[in-house]
Amino acid sequence: MKPTTDSLILLFALGATAAAAQSGASAGVTAGAAKLSDTRSEQALTGIVQLQPRPWLTLSALPALVHVSDEVSGRPVSSSGPGDFPLVVGAATAFRAEWSPSVGAALIVTLPVGNAACGLGAGQAAVGANVAAGLSPSDRLHLWAGASRNVSGLATQSTLSAPRSTALRLDAGYDLARRLRASASFAADVGQADSTQALSRMIGAGAAYTIAGPLMLVIDGGHGLTSSSPRWVLSLGLGTAFASTSLVSPTSPLGRQQTSFGGGVNRGSGSGKTGGCP
């Protein structure tokens, strides 16, 4: 890892956000904190820049700066730096039919920008996929279901999910007012558990408030339902786009958080390399 990587990632995030504002693209930033276990925690600042060359096609880049803390052999350790760097190609469409059904899919390629020797990132390139479908039974009520999984490597799966599992998610959103939507999520890992990261179940809630035009403020919270799940997750986002790889359910609280914490470390305690850098 070159010494200039941290500054390059930060400059990319700021520069891309400015360029997006000038070019009409979407951009946003999310800051969050997560208590992953009794000893391990993570803070992340994640930017997103989206281009939409076609009405159904979206291209996204999500650079992140990460700080992780852990306890190894009875002593506190920590690392800070850029996390792994997801690039997303997504497609979605809505149908003119009763309940306004929509479907979407995304391909996620994650570049190993994070320094795995410091406990940041997975240390390898990876490819993952996300699919989702949605319905709107009324003008105010919106329902979604989605699934994501690694196709190769480990880095595309969120810190909040087991790397080798399939992450399933159910979401509901209700428009309380013209500018305010409240949402709730349930997420569960199914399939194979990793040796350092057990399967997880979580619930989440969030609110999205439209400030002006497409500019929105979002706040999300999540809580683990099992002993192997993250204890809690909180995040705050501002912009015209948010860190979600699903184009069908971008206002999903856990969907935003799973992507925001996609470039850090896993939840395995004791054996991690957090703090391994000079």
Task: Describe the protein in words.
The chain is mostly beta strands and 278 residues long. It has a single domain (5-260), classed as Beta Barrel (Porin). It contains 2 helices and 14 strands, in the order H-E-E-E-E-E-E-E-E-E-E-E-E-E-E-H. It has helices at 5-23, 253-260, and strands spanning 26-35, 41-54, 57-61, 64-72, 75-82, 85-94, 102-111, 126-135, 141-152, 165-177, 180-191, 201-212, 215-224, 232-239. It has a 12-stranded antiparallel barrel. Strand 10 and strand 11 form a beta hairpin.
Notable traits:
globular, 10% helix, 12-stranded antiparallel beta barrel, 2 helices, mainly beta, 14 strands, 278 residues
Output the radius of gyration: 18 Å
How many domain units?
Answer: 1
Per DSSP, the total helix count is: 2
* CATH level-four homologous superfamily name: monomeric porin ompg
Overall pLDDT confidence: 81
- N- and C-termini, Cα separation: 12 Å
Major sheet: arrangement of strands? 1-2-3-6-7-8-9-10-11-12-13-14
Strand content: over 45%
Q: Main beta sheet, described? A: 12 strands, antiparallel, barrel
Q: What's the β-strand tally?
A: 14
CATH topology: Porin
Please tell me what the overall shape is: globular
Low-pLDDT ranges: 1-14, 19-23, 267-272
Indicate the structural class. mainly beta
Identify the CATH architecture: Beta Barrel
CATH C-level category: Mainly Beta
SSE order in H/E notation?
Answer: HEEEEEEEEEEEEEEH
Helix content: under 10%
